[in-house]
Specification:
With 514 residues, the chain is of the alpha/beta class. The chain contains 17 helices and 8 strands. It has 2 domains: 173 residues, P-loop containing nucleotide triphosphate hydrolases (Rossmann fold, 3-Layer(aba) Sandwich), CATH 3.40.50; 217 residues, no CATH class. The chain is 58% helix and 10% strand. A 5-stranded parallel sheet has the order 5-6-7-3-8, with helices on both faces. α2 packs parallel to α5, α11 packs antiparallel against α12 and α12 runs antiparallel to α14. The protein is elongated and about 105 Å long. The N and C termini lie far apart (72 Å).
């Protein structure tokens, strides 16, 4: 079995009440470029995830006797989406696969990495001088797919696994990608598994070609004719594929479907405790990543983006709050001739309001953006492709995000106190003020009411609020997504959860330290 790379033995995978793989037996031998044809919805992606170990079979086993050690050190994957990291340059996307680090955004890189990037870009027929420093958004669909191929090939894998490598491309671009794939597979002597619904891919690349219909544990192999023209070969494949589709639909009608019943209201209520426990487990798994030291580069980047970047909005909100607070305080206290208490009233109000108001601001501006970005990375396949490059996205992204918000929220909350005082001074210094104190008295008396203990409580509240926002936003975004609607739902749910968390933290800490 030394030349067998993958071996499926009676593999069963059941999803959504249907056996997608039902006792499947299949193998890939060294030197094969296996193309798996099949209609959409037939379960090809489930097969791919089982092949990669992302899905564990319900029965049977998947063996990899010809691949020594960790799978992704020898196998490279191209998913349906090109899954390029949009905020990083082309060279950073490729360097990430070489360095296996989540904190690479641009050069300079080592001479060895630079040489590897230039070499692989030329292999996929792209000019390094033109595309290295370009963002993926500046590239055409065909160029993005070539960059994704370059990223997969840069580590010189033993096996290339591609899932619908030409999705969304026009016929001419698709043909160019197929020709490029074929030439690189032959040039490098790689084995390959290519999953597609396009027969032209199979006729150009496949040796052997299979029709994906493992409902009965079988994946029929195309008996390719020999000594015929490419046109005759393609015609033979189309006729065979049509016959297989008809047989597939007939078998699927009689497929082994697991019986499912709609849950009753009682069952739904009973499921809530388990969902709560599952949620706690997910939180624990994400928090466990804090045991790993964060990337300093990502920590600083997040702090600048979410902390320093929030200063202008924080300044606007707290200055306006100070203006309103001073105006309302004057209206109430002047009636009793208590102008001298204005600095104390403003100071105590800002001490109480700054943590919760800053938390709402950060949750709205930063938490929703983090949840949206993380959700998009999950939906677009970026998390999956990072794992195939041996980069753990939770371990790489969450710790620096967590610690940056733990530092940013208390900083903004303390700054908000000073900014609120500035707003109050603006009112006091204006002709509209009727207070019997001047700005000098306010500036001298205001700091007296800000004790070290009070500031410490603000900082503690801010740290707890920042920690909760980071966990809620990243955790909600990182959950598996199947549609843009689920990304939107995660953003909305994250905001609600963050607001509840902020309220609970502020209330509990305030009651503990009145």
């Amino acid at each position: 079995m030394a030349d067998i790379l993958f071996n499926f033995q009676d593999v069963v995978v059941a999803l959504a009440g249907r056996r997608v793989l039902d006792g499947l037996c299949w193998e890939l031998r060294a030197g094969d470029c296996a193309v798996l044809l099949g209609p959409s919805g037939s379960g090809k992606t489930v097969f791919l995830h089982t092949l990669l170990g992302l899905i564990t079979p319900d029965e049977g086993r998947v063996e990899r006797p010809g691949l020594d050690g960790e799978l992704f050190s020898q196998a490279a994957v191209m998913f349906q989406e090109d899954a390029l990291l949009d905020e990083r340059t082309v060279e950073a996307n490729i360097a990430l696969a070489i360095e296996e680090r989540a904190d690479l955004f641009s050069g300079p890189f080592s001479a060895k990495t630079d040489h590897a990037i230039d070499e692989v870009l030329r292999e996929v027929r792209l000019d390094p001088k033109q595309v290295r420093r370009a963002l993926p958004s500046a590239l055409s669909g065909g160029m993005r797919r070539r960059v994704a191929l370059a990223r997969a090939l840069v580590r010189r894998p033993k096996v290339l696994i591609a899932d619908e490598p030409t999705t969304g491309l026009d016929p001419a671009s698709s043909a160019a990608i197929y020709d490029l794939l074929g030439s690189l597979i032959r040039k490098r002597g790689m084995s390959a598994v290519i999953i597609t619904h396009d027969p032209s891919c199979a006729s150009r690349l496949g040796y052997p070609v299979y029709f994906f219909s493992p409902v009965e544990g079988r994946m029929p192999r195309w008996p390719a004719p020999e000594g015929v023209s490419p046109e005759e070969r393609h015609k033979s494949l189309l006729l065979w594929m049509h016959d297989q589709i008809d047989a597939h639909m007939a078998r699927r009608t009689n497929a082994n479907v697991l019986e499912q019943e709609l849950p009753s209201p009682v069952d739904v209520l009973r499921s809530w405790p388990m969902r709560f426990v599952d949620g706690l487990g997910a939180v624990g798994l994400i928090m466990a990543n804090l045991a790993w030291p964060p990337s300093i580069a990502l920590l600083l980047r997040n702090f600048v983006q979410w902390g320093v970047g929030s200063i202008p909005l924080t300044a606007l909100i707290f200055v306006l709050l100070g203006v309103v607070m001073q105006a309302q305080s004057e209206a109430g206290l002047l009636r009793y001739g208590a102008s001298r208490y204005l600095p104390e009233f403003v100071a105590l109000s800002l001490l109480r309001l700054s943590p919760i108001l800053t938390g709402f601001l950060v949750a709205g501006r930063c938490g929703s953006a983090i949840s949206a970005h993380t959700g998009y990375m999950q939906l677009s396949g970026q998390f999956r492709v990072l794992r195939t490059m041996r980069v753990d996205p939770e371990r790489g992204f969450f710790p620096p995000l967590f610690w940056s918000l733990v530092a940013a929220v208390p900083m903004l909350a303390v700054a908000g106190i000073g900014l609120g005082a500035l707003g109050a001074l603006i009112v006091l210094a204006s002709p509209l003020s009727h207070a019997r104190i001047g700005p000098d008295f306010f500036m001298n008396d205001f700091p007296v009411h800000l004790s070290g203990g009070d500031i410490a409580i603000v900082i503690v509240k801010g740290m707890l609020i920042g920690a909760g926002i980071a966990l809620i936003a990243f955790g909600g975004g990182a959950r598996p997504k199947r549609s843009p609607a689920e990304v939107t739902s995660a953003i909305t749910g994250g905001l609600v959860a963050a607001f509840i968390w902020i309220t609970v933290v502020d209330t509990v800490v305030s009651l503990m330290f009145p």
